[in-house]
Amino acid sequence: MTVARRPANGARMTELALIRNFSIIAHIDHGKSTLADRLIQFTGGLSEREMSAQVLDNMDIERERGITIKAQTVRLDYPANDGKTYQLNLMDTPGHVDFAYEVSRSLAACEGALLVVDAAQGVEAQTLANVYQSIEHDHEIVPVINKIDLPAAEPERVKAQIEDVIGLDASQAVMTSAKAGIGIAEVLEAIVTRIPPPKGDRNAPLKAMLVDSWYDPYLGVVILVRIIDGVIRKGLQVRFMAGDTEHLIDRVGCMRPKIEQLPELGPGEIGFITAQIKEVAQARVGDTITTVKGGAVHALPGFKEVQPVVFCGLFPTDAADFEKLRDSIGKLRLNDASFSFEMETSAALGFGYRCGFLGLLHLEIIQERLSREYDLDLITTAPSVVYRLSMTDGSEVTLHNPSDMPDPVKIDTMFEPWIKATIYTPDEYLGSILKLCQDRRGIQTGLTYVGGRAQVNYELPLNEVVFDFYDRLKSISRGYASFDYEQIGLREGDLVKMNILVNNEPVDALSMIVHRSQADARGRGLVERLKDLIPRHLFKIPIQAAIGAKVIARETIAAMRKDVTAKCYGGDISRKKKLLDKQKEGKKRMREYGSVQIPQEAFIAALRMGEE
What we know:
By secondary structure, the protein is of the alpha+beta class. The protein has five domains: 16-194, Rossmann fold (3-Layer(aba) Sandwich); 207-291, Elongation Factor Tu (Ef-tu), domain 3; 310-380, Alpha-Beta Plaits; 387-493, 2-Layer Sandwich (Alpha-Beta Plaits), CATH 3.30.70.240; 496-611, Alpha-Beta Plaits. It contains 14 helices and 31 strands. An eight-stranded antiparallel sheet has the order 11-10-16-7-8-15-12-13. A six-stranded mixed sheet has the order 2-3-1-4-5-6, with helices on both faces. The protein is globular and about 110 Å long.
């Protein structure tokens, strides 16, 4: 592969006509990060020795799972065929639905997007979701058909699919194989010729959009900005309009992908600034940065505030680790502003935190990072969504934790969040997927065939999706179905709180809110599974699922029996009876005062309800 070297004087100001800001959008595993690697390599952003696979995915967990979690930015210099050197600002975005907010922020800072589609798999659910976001931002979209060197590749079929499903002209789609390095020069030429340059006025008051922020142990909070108007340089006193705070800029630069300091950033450019900010919370994403003196009057529209969708409790298995958990969560929050938490206590698990996430994958990533980076052993309670309760006295209550549910007599109506789901699946799995959606109280709104595959549209309660819907969908379809969703608001539901009692004591970590029609089945399934997971004790343990005072399911774990008559060799039967009666009394006393040890798998079992 020929590698073009960038000019040494990268510090000079670039005129607007030579700047191109673009994102790479695609479904999971269609090759976004690999294409970004090839673009960096081709333009000489890194030498051959410095290159590694997924170079922009700098977290271990991203490399291991092969997914992008944080959107990353890099500036490249490209000498085009017309003899001019262009400044390309590339944003690699995540593909998973849980990190859609990262995609929306990246798109807001760009004028165009590369739409990467797998030549074998074609258009998937997330491809559509990301394209629609890009179209909303009025972007120029360049279709890129990737993995054309695969034996199963059908580029012509995929071209037709892009035109039928999305309505984009795919006649000039660029054919590439990012892994093999085929078609990279054509991609760069398409960026330069088809994506428009940014607009902006260098002499207008400073207006910069805060796109992202993260914590660096050496630099403090690093802020990624897109300059709309004006110029930002070191020593400038700036104001964050939404946060209403003032800061002195001490560093201006860009990522190539290594950090490079610059004297200034002008209109249309994307780069980073530091201003001795200690907390990421002060740098709110979507804020407008302007100068203190003679600054802009009106702020930019900004982004929607990120709303957590799934809540669950995180508790240390050893109560002595609570302080360690508090420090670790605080540090993790510095680099993930979408993750929220507040302290809570549980009778069964002690002190912990109630945390808000964007979805189950986000929950899993946070949990794994806490255990891996901070060496914590955690118990996770059953996830729940946010409910709204209309009380009989006319007030409204937001419910995050099932154990906080007020007395049902005081509740007039309960509302639960619903989603609009789009599922793409090969025909042979369609029946099983429709049954799965029906079982989860889904309402079918559409079924069409696109390019030989079925596109199913359903409205589903989010409560039914957060448990294990995605896992079940993947196992039913052998991994071929793809799934994307968006929230469509709250609807009234006949919901009840189901308590789990172990040895007549409620375990609040296992309490959950379920639909009345499914309470019996879910209660039965959970107590049966807990019976297998909780080890036998020296006394009988009843496990019950109850709604209020009504027990809807029960299992009993038999007591372990010690042979107390083993030391009796012969003699009168009354000696044996005496010992057995004494044992019976002891077991009765134990049942009253004995504590039941519930292993961590029992709590995790609540997440995996529908697998059997």
